[in-house]
């Protein structure tokens, strides 16, 4: 189903005026940001696995403990965890599932949004997931994974398809299945998933519905404002 969904994006984009996409990007035939993100996540996983001496239990490594998201430690000043935790994975299955989703969802979104905008979307979605964890999780809960960013791409795909007036029913179905999975399976951070999904959709709406006049300035301002709000929310949780 995933491939059919991204094909809708590609088909819708072919009907758009030539020259720029609905986000104001110049279409490029090759995705670069998505494989780069996959490479970074894979390298970080390999480092934690080597340090732990066990591929299945890489979360036992010192690097994993220092980079994972623990709300209480963020409140104590270890702010980097809200970002670095998004590049960690607990075991190879967690890594493979997230990277497969990133590959399937990200390639066409990167073409539609442009490389810079896509990377900004990915990072702000990751921050949205972290902010939700900070707001709703216990201070000692340890969270890691790119799922917040991946859910952000799901939300982004819905918004792009609606903007292109392409069918989005399949994407809603995929999101529904993942939401149920997030709420019913133990050990999954539903907070990070929901936070990423909502922020990803909001950020993408700012990108694809920005007026053509001063489009880039509006997009930068909107994503900048969204980032500031998320940072403030994270800060407030420590008061």
Structure description:
The protein has 239 residues and is mainly α. The protein has eleven helices and no strands. The mean pLDDT is 89.
Q: Which percent band covers the strand fraction?
A: under 5%
Uncertain parts: none
Total helical elements: 11
The main sheet comes to: none
**Percent range of helical residues:** 55-70%
Order of helices and strands: HHHHHHHHHHH
The average pLDDT value, as a whole number, equals 89
Give the N-terminus to C-terminus distance in angstroms: 44 Å
Q: Give a count of the beta strands, DSSP E runs of length 2 or more.
A: 0
How much is the radius of gyration in Å? 18 Å
Give the overall form.
globular
Q: Tell me the structural class.
A: mainly alpha
Oligomer: single chain
